[in-house]
Amino acid sequence: MSDLTKMSAAQLAKAIADKEASAVEVATAHLDRIDAVDERVHAFLHVDREGALAAAAKVDAGEVSGPLAGVPIAVKDVIATKGVPTTAASKILEGWRPPYDATLVERLRVAGTVMLGKTNMDEFAMGSSTEYSAYGPTNNPWDLGRIPGGSGGGSAAALAAYEAPLAIGTDTGGSIRQPGAVTGTVGAKPTYGGTSRYGLIAFSSSLDTPGPCARNVEDAALLHSVIAGHDPRDSTSIDQPVPDVIGAARLGAGGDLSGVKLGVVKEFAGDGSEPGVLSAFHESLEALVKLGAEIVEVSCPHFQYALPAYYLIAPSEASSNLARFDGVRYGLRTGDDGSRSLEEVMSLTREAGFGPEVKRRIILGTYALSSGYYDAYYGQAQKVRTLITRDFEAAWQKADVLVSPTTPFVAFPFGSRTSDPYQMYLADLFTIPTNLYGGPAISVPCGLSEGLPVGFQVMAPTMADDRMYRVAAALESAVGTLTPPTLEASA
Ligand code: GLN
């Protein structure tokens, strides 16, 4: 492995700006690494070698500058990239090349990043393991027999396998943070509306939030600041200045948390997590206390209803959003031989194009929204959502941020949770409350349990994204980053 693939995004940006390395060299090193290991990892659904080298050449020619000029990046395949295949890991979008870029992709280009390709995920971002990708799962670089998390497992695995220093994910219920936790990388879900949804293939529009994935907190903050900010093309985009996440990460890296109150969510700090996860979490709390933080216990009684509320709200919105995949407008069309009605072709296309988890969500959502059940299910879930938001607001009276493990368990072996959907849904037990509330949250590595990474979650009030970066960077300064196995050994 070349040293260029081991460098952080900040180091690469500096080396390229100082002309110690060319952007083409950096891109080539990462493309070669992908060639060497991605057959085993399968982080990518599509590698855009030509596009990456052309973008890098532009940086070297001085045609593109920006804070991340020449830094390679991998983008989750649920995000529209002009002319580059975008499938959301679904058969129904096989071969689709969007005619436009998502806002965040435009911003990545302006910042000078070099897109290497599109990463694997659970189909339409529904899942926690990438096992629901229509193109086969991604393998966790820490143990190729285990899941890399999901839905954005490809983005997280690309970082852990040194195939890219930066990646983009989307977090509807935990799909940035949970893959970050189980791959020993950093994943941040910005405040809802803090990053634009324009050009995301919609899953649950009131929850979907794109955000940064990186191998350290400062890199995540650098990427966050590049993609965040108001976008008039997204009706729920927040028209306020982006919090100073880079400054906060650097402040936190100084290792002083005096006066910062960390609220430990009582309901998430006890039973329900693996013992190794809990001990890494509690050791991290002790490390943060040594840096001057104060621990307060906070009760959030409605968090226990977050999972069931989410699994009504998200599928309801998904059932409506996925109606657009009708065999007419995009991608796959099945059975259109002139003998069938439009409805029959639509139905055959959706039958052939969607995988079982996506179908389950559409059926669940359609049922929850149907007249007669709307009040009992969807309406009730929305009320619970309000109660969860109130729990957060009450918590901010006592604490600056809330903390918990990111996930109750470390990376699990393939096939161990697919037979029971509820077991899969449990992976997001601790991440979902934040999505229902809309605030920001970050997962940062905090140690190992049985040789596998454990994530520490920091949740903050809406538009206080800087606060979570400060605490995450302080924790990183105390416990260090994790170094995944290099994969060479098994070559
Ligand atoms: N695992 C959750 C789900 O399956 C969250 C997905 C996400 O954040 N995109 O819905």
UniProtKB/TrEMBL annotation:
GO terms for molecular function: glutaminyl-tRNA synthase (glutamine-hydrolyzing) activity. Gene3D superfamilies: Amidase signature (AS) domain. It holds the Pfam family Amidase. The active site is at 76 (charge relay system), 151 (charge relay system), 175 (acyl-ester intermediate). Signal peptide: none annotated. It comes from the Bacteria. It catalyses: L-glutamyl-tRNA(Gln) + L-glutamine + ATP + H2O = L-glutaminyl-tRNA(Gln) + L-glutamate + ADP + phosphate + H(+). Residues 25-467 form the Amidase domain. HAMAP family: GatA. Allows the formation of correctly charged Gln-tRNA(Gln) through the transamidation of misacylated Glu-tRNA(Gln) in organisms which lack glutaminyl-tRNA synthetase. The reaction takes place in the presence of glutamine and ATP through an activated gamma-phospho-Glu-tRNA(Gln). This is Glutamyl-tRNA(Gln) amidotransferase subunit A. It comes from Paractinoplanes ovalisporus.
